[in-house]
């Protein structure tokens, strides 16, 4: 989120996965919100804490009428996890719009990245967007997706 927005320190980061344990709201340009949810993958927290996140996140995603896009973050270096697939299947079953961002794209060679993105797209049956927080590769494409969903959600003057 920080690199996508070009802001340091907005969303707290840590080298230890699982630091986001609540739902955090960030007002962007006084016009829309980014919402940071607890992760479901490699969080290093007690299992009872992690078990609470599922219902909290599911309730949030299921009941927000103004939620226009979910961004599922995966790691471009690895195969999709069981939890990635579970999240994507849930979003599809609830007809929630989403994009899949494959991060750490700068850590792979061009050939490796193309192969992993292609393989991930086939598994998810949806095109992945490769992204690098270091080089900002993919940022324009992500913003295009976000902007399109926001503009689709904006009421027209005739409404």
CATH architecture annotation: 3-Layer(aba) Sandwich
> What fraction, in percent, of the residue positions are helical?
25-40%
CATH superfamily: P-loop containing nucleotide triphosphate hydrolases
Q: Strands across the major sheet, in which order?
A: 3-4-5
Number of helices: 5
The major β-sheet equals: 3 strands, parallel
Structural class: alpha/beta
Strand content: 15-25%
Elements, N to C (H/E): HEEHEHEHEH
What is the count of structural domains?
1
Overall description:
The chain is of the alpha/beta class and 159 residues long. It has one domain: 3-Layer(aba) Sandwich (Rossmann fold), CATH 3.40.50.300. It is 40% helix and 16% strand. The protein is built from five helices and five strands, in the order H-E-E-H-E-H-E-H-E-H. The chain has a three-stranded parallel sheet with strand order 3-4-5, sandwiched between helices. Strands 1-2 form a two-stranded antiparallel ribbon. Residues 14-18 have low confidence and may be disordered.
Question: How would you summarize what this structure contains?
Answer:
This protein is of the alpha/beta class and 159 residues long.
What would the keywords be for this entry?
159 residues; alpha/beta; Rossmann fold; three-stranded parallel sheet; two-stranded antiparallel sheet; 5 helices; 5 strands; 40% helix; 16% strand
